[in-house]
Each structure stands twice: as C-alpha cells, then as structure tokens.
Protein: Cytosol aminopeptidase
Amino acid sequence: MTLTFAPDTASAIPLHVIAEDALETWLADQPERIKAWVGAAGFTGALGRTLLIPGEAGTIEMALAGYGSACTRARGRFHLAGCAATLPEGTYRLEGLPSDQAETEALGWLLSHYAFERYHSQSPAKARLIAPEGIDATRLEIIAAGEALTRDLINTPASDLGPDALEAACTAIATQHGASIETICGRDLLDHNFPLIHTVGRAAETEPRLIDMRWGKSGPKLTLVGKGVCFDTGGLNLKPGSNMGLMKKDMGGAATVLGLAHMIMALGMPVQLHVLIPAVENAVAGNAFRPGDILTARNGLTVEINNTDAEGRLVLADALAFAAEECPDFIISMATLTGAARVAVGPDISPYYTDSAAMAAALEGAAEKVADPVWRMPFHTPYEAMIEPGIADLDNAPSGGFAGSITAALFLRRFTDGLPYGHFDIYGWTPTAAPARPKGGVGMGARALLEALPKVLSL
Structure:
C-alpha cells in the first residue's frame, strides 16, 4: 500500500479532467481521430467516467476523466479517486483540473490506494499520480498516512486490538516522533484516581489502562482525548447481536485522535501536544459494573449508572478531568459516542460541540476546504437538568431518549472545568464504499481539525 505521489517523469500519461460542459471546447482542439474515438466510445464527461485513448503504436496516448457538472459534483467528494480505481496501472499527470480542487482531488487519489489487507488481499487503485503543481505534496502524504493509521486501527478486530494492542500502537507512534509515553494500568488506575476507567474495564481479561502521550516543548497546549473502548458488549445491559457486530469500531475516537496526532507531529506544528486515551473493553463478568451503581469520578462528581452501555462517557470523564487539571489552551475529545448522532446527521458528517466561537468559525471554513464535513451541534444548557438524576450529581443515561447526543456532550463538559473545549461525536465507519473511502473504518473530523487548529490556537 503506497499512499505517496509518483516521481515526475516525462513518460507519464496525460489525464485530462473534462467537465460535461467543457467537452465540446476540448474536442475542438483535438485531431479527427481523437474526436472520432471519443464519439464512438460515448464519452460525455459524466462524473467518474474514464476513457483511454490509444496512440498510433497501440500504447495509451492519454486518458480522459469525466468531471460531471457542478450539480453532480456537489453530491459527493474525491471524484477523481473514483476514476483512479478504473484506470490501468501506470503514472498519470493531471491536465485541466481547476486549481481550487487540486489539493482535495490529489488527497482523494492517494486515499484510493488504501486497502486493509491484514487478513485478506484487496484490490486498491493501481494508477499513481504525479502531484499537481501548487500543492504541498509532503503535507498531503502525511495526512494520508494519518488517515491510513486510523483506518487500520478501526478495521482491526478486538481479537487483535484489545487495550494492550492499542497501547502498542500508541507506543509505535510515540517512538516514531520522539514523543514520551506513559501508561497507567489495572488497579494502578485506582491508586492514581482514575476510578471510572477502572470500573468500566475491570471485567475484561485485558486490563483497562490510560495511555498518556506528550510531544512538543513550546507553543499552545493542546490536549486530545480519544475514546478507546476496544470492544463494547454493552456490559450487563447487553447489546443485541445486531448492534454488537460493529463494536470493534468503538475505539474509533482513539484511532482518529492518533491519526490526527501523527499529522500534527509529522508536520511539526508548534504546539505542546498531550494525547490521552482511556483504553478498555466493556465486558460481561461477575465483577462488571451494574445498573444502579453510583460511581465517583476523578473530579469528585458522582454518577448514577442507568445503563452500562453508556460507558464511553464514563472513561472519557476521568480522562477529561485529568486533562483539565493541567489547564491546556484547548481540549478536544473524539468518540464514537451515541447512536443519536447518527440519527441526526447520518454516517458521513462529524457533529461537534463547542462554546468557542473561534473554533466554530475556523471549522466552518476548514471543513469545506478539505472535504471533511462537520456540523455544529448545541451545548443546550437548559438540557442540563436531563443529566441530573437527583440521587447523584449526574446520570450516565437519561431516560426518555430525547437529545441523546446533546446530553452526552453536556455530561462530558462537566469534566472540563470551564476550559475551551470541543467534542466530536463521530461514527468512524463507511457503511457503503465511496470514492477514496472503502467500506470500513474511516477518520472523521481530523482533517478539518488539522486545518482549523492554527486559527483555534492562534498559531
């Protein structure tokens, strides 16, 4: 799997990107044999269509990639990645692509080469691309590598990616970038006052842990917190089988945070980066935590457990409380937290919460620029009463089913001590294959955040 651009070469095949309304103009400058070939093939410039044009010696003289219309392009992204998948192996040079689309389409082309082949060979795109002029090719290769890391982690089943293996993945990234890493594991979590992380993970064979990675000596302090539930049975509130099938992806927040951390460190962003990943498996055993239990979090807040399947917010609570103790300039959490978020915006959009106008404004423009859609959701303070059960400070699973993603975000905000904070309630999975996004694990929100961080942190 090579997520890099091809070296420039004079023998590269020209790939002409042609919109439907530009085909006639392009054909006017071509010799009669090419006009006849295009006409006989029925090529119209429709989005995603490709056409190879042979030269007189029978080799490929050029290729055409349909770029559709503004209307059809608006219904998707990474359009040339779809073309890359249908082109034969070779090196291609783009011609005629609008410059404002070069970065997004080039990244999509790189991502079209991703395949998860740990257990079975796949068939990613073979056509390689020379980086278009005017783009930062190194930056895009780093972003693609971060995305591939996220996808690999999410796609790996819990049999091979428990909390210990997730720790090993973090250690590998820390070693690669010269970051420090420390792990608090098992009953040591109690000694270091991480009671919720321990409680959620104590029933599993592999011990729960908090993974703590740090990088950078100067600049604003940025803390990333990722939910690392490596498998979620639902605990004693056992999920039905149909809902358990994708629970290997319940560490998607941790995977996305690690992918983003790789991007930040590889690009040398001038920040002090702190990454916290509570890594657990929510299992069923005689010592599993129970509905009705009341737990005390790291910051002293008590939590009534009304559903053991709402465990992600519990492990994040301890990690967020720890993050807040160091007073960073910004805290960001990412988690595959609620089904309510999927009902609200579907699988392709990253809903996020923040009280920071600067973060919201920066993400608005960044998400569109890098084709990583996000949608701001409200920290609706009047709903605070919904997470206050009376018998304890907080309820981990309010009854009624209303505003499930909002109440989960409000729960998490209680542990940030009023510091600047953003929370992403992501899905982490592509249910149906799309250009540059095969079915399976996917990063969500990381590229938009990477683009927005300089403004958010005033770098």
Notes: The chain has two domains: 13-125, 141-456. The two ends are 34 Å apart (CA to CA).
